[in-house]
């Protein structure tokens, strides 16, 4: 499986970050069954840290995890705004720390909305976390065991990215979910 694609899905959070690594079982994967779950879990940030220190911890933890897992690409859930602006800001900051950790490795990043994930995996954009998990069980035989939904959400993100890379399979995935590698720039 060394030369086949490996996609790291990330469900961002300011305290708990879900992750899942999918590996293709063949060079041209066409269906969810052509992917296998190589790893899944959560990273937990220290809640007793002030936000700047927590963001540094989140960045370092994901960077180390990505180095260890060696994905070929990454999918991360886009932020959505809820009623609490303070929570939305913290989530945005956490996403920034996570995205910068991945960008340091030069990996392509696809940003996927929650509705895209739910629509593609569970069949409708208003699916619950449990419905997404049940769909993953049916599509891939995934059993999260005692893992929180953050891990199955990350798997759903990775699977959405994997299917959006396969022509004709994910017509609901937007053009924004296609991988684009920016030209390298020097930082001064």
Textual characterization of the structure:
The chain is α/β, with parallel strands linked by helices. It has helices spanning 51-69, 85-103, 114-122, 129-140, 149-164; strands at 6-11, 16-24, 35-44, 73-77, 109-112. It has a single domain, classed as Ribonuclease H-like superfamily/Ribonuclease H (Nucleotidyltransferase, domain 5), CATH 3.30.420.10. Helix content is 40%, strand content 18%. Strands 3-2-1-4-5 form a 5-stranded mixed beta sheet. It is globular and about 45 Å long.
Layout: helices, strands, pairs:
Elements: E1 6-11, E2 16-24, E3 35-44, H1 51-69, E4 73-77, H2 85-103, E5 109-112, H3 114-122, H4 129-140, H5 149-164
Parallel strand pairs: 1-4, 4-5
Antiparallel strand pairs: 1-2, 2-3
CA(first)-CA(last) distance: 39 Å
Spatially, the strands of the biggest sheet line up as 3-2-1-4-5
Global mean pLDDT: 85
What is the CATH topology? Nucleotidyltransferase, domain 5
CATH class placement: Alpha Beta
How many domains make up the coordinates?
Answer: 1
* Oligomer category: single chain
Largest sheet: 5 strands, mixed
CATH superfamily: Ribonuclease H-like superfamily/Ribonuclease H
Instruction: Work out the radius of gyration.
Output: 16 Å
**Structural class label:** alpha/beta
Outline, from the CA principal axes?
Answer: globular
CATH architecture: 2-Layer Sandwich
Low-confidence stretches: 167-188
Order of helices and strands: EEEHEHEHHH
Helix content: 25-40%
Put simply, the count of helices is: 5
Report the portion of residues in β strands: 15-25%
- According to DSSP, the number of beta strands is 5
